[in-house]
């Protein structure tokens, strides 16, 4: 749980840092864009006045300063339209046309678009304002780049955060896998010696008390311990799947659970008449079903209830469902139940469903999820397996 909490804190920190960087970048970019826009508008007003001076010039006017102002505009796209909407001058436009007429039409359309967008300065050439020119302008390439830059930066920051979180989760999963594998193999090793000893003692007891009715049950439990140890020893390796009957697996689970649970809990099966044979590791898959059944028993809290194991098949898939009439799962907990360390029990490591998910998905290439759950009525888990 401590690892999980620390990982969640790091993820939250990375997301918050990304948001702060993005917001700061947007604010700075907006401020720069606004300042540059004001500066460009001021330049265009000076440029428009120069155009007015040029239009009103006579043979005695010194045009050197006017022409210098007009020629210094190398960045801002500008189109000058007369009062009839005809182009009289344009600068800094990349023209996409094949001939002179197409060029004129293109420049005219660009000028009208600037005018409609409100980027226009009207200069009256006469006192009655009947004769005028419209100086239409657009943002410079630099201004457009500055406006787009923060969004590009935001994308880079988000990509960095995603990569960092992915690396963090991968590292976490690798560390958890090492812990699980080590713990499982050590558990199998530690169980080996007492199980062998118990098997020897049962053999001696059978010779001394051949008619004792309890010895067969003790023998079953010891064999069960041996099976559990075998399961633990296989964690971390990829067991070879072999054809096996899902019907038999579910029957074994029901037989085992029925003998070891309260009589208040009824075990039911809904199995097809014909055996469903698929490639699987029977020992590990049986453990998955047992784990779901034990969780169902815990969910009923010693009250009357029913656990139903259902097996169905389609042309390409096989479905195994484990339903109970227990207390159900809260909606906010459903997405976390397969997360290592998460548990709603007072006692528990929160690893059972996580290991079950790993066995189903990694070893059997299937899928396990909560099909339905309602608080106070029960839960149904579904396992989907592909038929090969």
TrEMBL record:
Q: Does the keyword ATP-binding apply?
A: yes
Catalyses:
ATP + protein L-histidine = ADP + protein N-phospho-L-histidine
What Pfam family does this protein match (any one)?
HATPase_c
Keyword Chloroplast on this protein? no
Q: Which organism is it from?
A: Prevotella scopos JCM 17725
Q: Which residues form the Histidine kinase domain?
A: 186-388
What name goes with this protein?
A: histidine kinase
- GO molecular-function terms, A-Z: ATP binding; protein histidine kinase activity
GO-annotated biological processes = phosphorelay signal transduction system
Identify the InterPro entries for this entry: HATPase_C_sf (IPR036890), HATPase_dom (IPR003594), His_kinase_dom (IPR005467), Sig_transdc_His_kin-like_C (IPR004358)
**EC no.?**
2.7.13.3
Ordered alphabetically, the record's keywords are: ATP-binding, Kinase, Membrane, Nucleotide-binding, Phosphoprotein, Transferase, Transmembrane, Transmembrane helix, Two-component regulatory system
Supply the Gene3D superfamilies for this chain.
Histidine kinase-like ATPase, C-terminal domain
Q: Which residues cross the membrane?
A: 12-32, 148-169
């Amino acid at each position: 749980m401590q690892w999980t909490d620390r990982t969640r804190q790091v993820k939250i920190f990375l997301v918050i840092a990304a948001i702060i960087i993005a917001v700061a970048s947007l604010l700075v970019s907006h401020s720069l864009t606004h300042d540059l826009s004001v500066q460009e508008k001021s330049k265009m007003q000076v440029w428009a006045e120069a155009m007015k001076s040029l239009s009103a010039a006579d043979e005695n006017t010194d045009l050197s300063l006017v022409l210098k102002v007009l020629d210094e505009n190398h960045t801002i796209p500008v189109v000058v339209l007369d009062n009839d909407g005809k182009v009289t001058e344009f600068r800094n436009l990349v023209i996409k046309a094949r001939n002179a007429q197409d060029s004129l039409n293109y420049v005219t359309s660009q000028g009208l678009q600037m005018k409609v967008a409100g980027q226009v300065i009207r200069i009256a050439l006469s006192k009655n304002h009947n004769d005028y020119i419209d100086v239409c302008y657009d943002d410079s390439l630099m201004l457009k780049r500055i406006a787009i830059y923060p969004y590009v930066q935001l994308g880079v920051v988000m990509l960095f955060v995603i990569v960092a979180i992915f690396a963090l989760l991968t590292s976490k999963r690798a560390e958890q896998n090492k812990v699980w594998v080590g713990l499982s193999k050590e558990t199998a090793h530690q169980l080996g010696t007492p199980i062998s000893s118990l098997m020897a003692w049962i053999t001696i007891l059978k010779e001394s008390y051949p008619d004792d009715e309890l010895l067969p049950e003790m023998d079953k439990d010891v064999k069960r311990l041996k099976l559990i140890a075998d399961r633990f020893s296989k964690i971390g390796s990829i067991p070879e799947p072999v054809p096996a009957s899902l019907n038999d697996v579910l029957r074994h689970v029901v037989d085992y659970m029925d003998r070891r649970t309260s009589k208040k809990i009824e075990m039911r099966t809904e199995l097809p008449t014909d055996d469903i044979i698929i490639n699987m590791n029977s020992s590990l898959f049986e453990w998955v079903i047992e784990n779901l059944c034990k969780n169902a028993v815990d969910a009923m809290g010693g009250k009357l209830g029913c656990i139903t194991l259902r097996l169905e098949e389609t042309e390409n898939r096989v479905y195994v469902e484990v339903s109970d009439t227990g207390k159900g799962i809260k909606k906010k907990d459903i997405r976390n139940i397969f997360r290592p360390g998460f548990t709603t029990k007072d006692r528990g490591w929160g690893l059972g469903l996580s290991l079950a998910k790993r066995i189903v998905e990694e070893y059997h290439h299937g899928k396990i999820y909560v099909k339905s759950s309602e608080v106070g009525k029960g839960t149904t888990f579904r396992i989907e397996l592909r038929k090969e």
